[in-house]
Specification:
By secondary structure, this protein is of the alpha/beta class. The chain contains five helices and eight strands; from the N terminus they run H-E-E-E-H-E-H-E-H-E-E-E-H. Strand 4, helix 3 and strand 5 form a beta-alpha-beta unit.
Length: 167
């Protein structure tokens, strides 16, 4: 078995082309292309990552109103930022200030740690420690939940897919 980090859109493309047996990604409101099937794999809440010197880092829990005028760093692999933008808009009640759009989670965290903006990140990312980086929970947790899915070609019965499906 080989594992590769891929953006959600790239996973879907690779699945359809037969270059990938199973994808694992958030369902960020996108419908699946014909020929693919999804199986729920879990869910997560979102948190805010920022540099430890940021004024909001002194708080343990953040409210949306405190974030409205802050610059954000968003994950936008292959230019696709529509996964996070709808959540940010919903959380903030308007259009977020986007400072940077980057294509990897590590880049998002590095820019946040450098104090260049705030980042909305999945709660499991909290386990990724980085110098000068802190994570803060949101008071408004319930509207910001993402569902994770294992995705494969419909009707595929490969051994790899079956092994992952049973996990």
């Amino acid at each position: 078995m080989e594992l590769h980090e891929m953006a959600p859109a790239a996973q879907l493309e690779a699945l359809l082309a037969g270059r990938l047996d199973v994808g694992y990604c958030p369902q960020l409101g996108h419908s699946l292309p014909a020929g693919l099937q999804a199986r729920p794999a879990g869910s997560w809440h979102w948190e805010v990552a920022m540099g430890e010197q940021h004024p909001l880092a002194a708080r343990r829990i953040l409210r949306a109103v405190e974030l409205r005028e802050q610059p954000f760093i968003v994950y936008a692999a292959d230019g696709d930022d529509e996964g996070q933008l709808p959540m940010l808009r919903r959380l903030l009640g308007g259009e977020p200030r986007i400072a940077y759009k980057v294509g990897s989670t590590m880049s998002v965290l590095a820019l946040a740690a450098a104090g260049l903006g705030l980042a909305l990140v999945p709660a499991p990312v909290r386990k990724m420690a980085a110098p000068n980086l802190v994570y803060r929970r949101l008071a408004e947790r319930s509207p910001l939940v993402s569902e994770l899915a294992a995705i494969s070609r419909a009707g595929a019965n490969g051994a790899r897919r079956s092994a992952i499906w049973t996990c």
